[in-house]
């Protein structure tokens, strides 16, 4: 039996579209037990309880790359990461399946190999990289290889996730993006993402409100998130350091000074006046990434 824990992730962090992501301390766990034959999946909706399950597909793809064949498998999932909310639930499934396959095969693959396969499956590395490695990770794909860097984040901030009850698929949220952007908007994002990473790394948190701005996706996607502008103003009025759409949304994350003790209670009061049952969750950075908790 192999047990694997994978953290939630928030991709983009505003301007870092498809290139920046951070692991957060909300976890799914996956248990794998080999069977003589067949597939058994426990702990997920009926829609995913079949051969198209992302954990299973990722496991099979990884094993086939190693020329290993899976006889049968029981996958038990304990899900705490909300699905289709922009918190990396798909990335968690992909990373768990790949890591589980590597464990079953006797760990022939390196972290870089695992990340390459995960990126092939997900299509971009910004969620799978921090899910696998933990922390704040910048990543790019260059001729099918993934290059990444894990960046130290200075102490003193907390991440508050505002999670609505409605879902938004990544496909839909990518579908509203323009095919081309202007040179001016590209320059806008280059500056912001550089400022963002440097501010997180050296603790100049007063720069986050500029560093989290973006012209590539948030203006388009915010229209799919009812009350986005209102929520952003509520966060600003309660001294948030900066606010962004988590991944493809609809979750919104606001970064707050850890000394801002009143933030959650003030925010929660205002959220009760809005529809969509926004849930408030205080999260910290997960530094470990995916871990194998046990193997018997
Ligand atoms: N970078 C991706 C996006 C993350 O924003 O579409 C979600 O998969």
Automatic annotation (TrEMBL):
Belongs to the GHMP kinase family. Homoserine kinase subfamily. GO terms for biological process: threonine biosynthetic process. The lineage of its organism: Bacteria, Bacillati, Bacillota, Clostridia, Eubacteriales. PROSITE patterns: GHMP_KINASES_ATP. This is Homoserine kinase. One of its GO terms (cellular component) is cytoplasm. It is an enzyme of class 2 (transferase). Residues 197-264 form the GHMP kinase C-terminal domain. Catalyzes the ATP-dependent phosphorylation of L-homoserine to L-homoserine phosphate. Pathway: Amino-acid biosynthesis; L-threonine biosynthesis; L-threonine from L-aspartate: step 4/5. Its EC number is 2.7.1.39. Its main location: cytoplasm. The keyword GTP-binding does not apply. It is found in: Cytoplasm. It catalyses: L-homoserine + ATP = O-phospho-L-homoserine + ADP + H(+). Residues 53-135 form the GHMP kinase N-terminal domain. One of its GO terms (molecular function) is ATP binding. Keywords: Amino-acid biosynthesis, ATP-binding, Cytoplasm, Kinase, Nucleotide-binding, Threonine biosynthesis, Transferase. InterPro entries: GHMP_kinase_C_dom, GHMP_kinase_C_sf, GHMP_kinase_N_dom, GHMP_knse_ATP-bd_CS, Homoserine_kinase, Ribosomal_Su5_D2-typ_SF, Ribsml_uS5_D2-typ_fold_subgr. ATP binds at residues 82-92.
